[in-house]
Amino acid sequence: MQQRVEFHARADRALHNPQIRSNFRYAMDGLIDKRKRSFPDLDELNRLRLRCAEIRVNALSKLPELLEQLEACCTKNGIQVHWAETVGEANRIVLDIMNRHNAKLLIKGKSMVSEEMELNHYLEQQGIECLESDLGEYILQLAGEPPSHIVAPAIHKSRQQVAQLFKEKFPDIPYSDDVDRLTRNARHILRRKFYEAPVGLSGVNFAVAETGTICLVENEGNGRMCTTIPPVHIAVTGIEKVVEKLSDIPPLLSILPRSATGQHITTYFNMITSPRKPGEKDGPDEVHLVLLDNGRSRIYEDQELIATLRCIRCGACMNHCPVYTRIGGHAYGTTIPGPIGSILEPQKAGLDRYGDLPTASTLCGACGEVCPVRIPIPALLNRLRFERVRQDHTGVTRGQGSQRDPWEARIWKGWSWMHANPAIYRLGIGLAAGLRWMLPKRLGAWTRVRSAPRLAAKSLHKLAREKGLDHE
Fold first, then answer.
1. Is the pLDDT of residue 2 over 50?
2. DSSP assignment, residue 230?
3. What CATH number does domain 42-294 carry, 3.40.50.450, 2.40.240.20, 3.30.565.10, 3.40.50.10420?
4. Is the alpha carbon torsion for 343, 351, 445, 404 positive or negative?
């Protein structure tokens, strides 16, 4: 219940913050327009979506075997593979690697799994400095905030807000709200850290089982710096990111950046298959791959909910969602916000904790229409809505029925009984119409944002009889 109250409170604060709404509206409109222009041929888009969905469905259908193949190929290539069932285990694996190298500084590329692990907080408690090198993540690290979008984490901030933040944190640097100058200032601050850090960390966009290759998509080059300059590279990823073959990558790489930012290709596409080999000029001496479960195996067991794991983290569903674009990512209180977060996070952490998120949707269907791997998000939202109030469902999501209201259940049971008995139904409708002035004007959450419905003086059947249209 506390989480439910917090979600509504956060959403309400966001709706009454004109700066947040303005920032998001401007950013989302731009991303929607760029995506639309990057797919001028709708037939080509539909074929590509179908192909990418097939790739992800195929990978998930063989997930256990592909993970074993990935481990075998990575190990053969010299990449050390670690398995973590929980975020606690994953954090301890990273800490152990840091300690073995007496490392007190970790330079990080963008990684939503590291956010899921709350890795920065964990390592800082152990006396290890974690420095974000992605510009958006670095801005939020300075501000002490979590990401509000999975592709553009600082999208909720205007350039003036970023400039003011830099002025507060770096008073020796002249104030400027020019985006290029702000970027140069951040680059100057971060560049020396790349050479000082003994360990670099990155996320993973795709892991190829066939070749043991880690694929990383980025625009700023910080990911490449994190994975080539420090002597040790740690990649953290969820177990669902595996694909079967190297030939699966081009279609996914074609649709991911266009769905995310409207780019036909990102500035950098990194393919890491081994540590530095003799004669190579750059690259780490060690590469570690941490495969995190954290509830994904439970999702995998359900034939319907498994579609959640297709996600390639493009953020298109967020950009097109009328709820997300008005309340922003922080209102959700989760690592992954928006429509995909509203189905993923309750499955991982439980409906008892995040059961309200599936209701943060108009069910307009936009998220499903733009998903590049055709995840049926609206159907999964309805599935989780059903589970949150039903204790007799056989699904795998924890916290089923956690928001079941016994009184509401009794009311609906009575409604069902009344509609199954015509005489009782007519009597009930007649009484309700006659006593309509006694009906309450407040009907719980429904009337918090709506006017209470008022019954008509005459039922539809009575009006039909008066018009001679009743054929009973």
1. no
2. S
3. 3.40.50.10420
4. positive
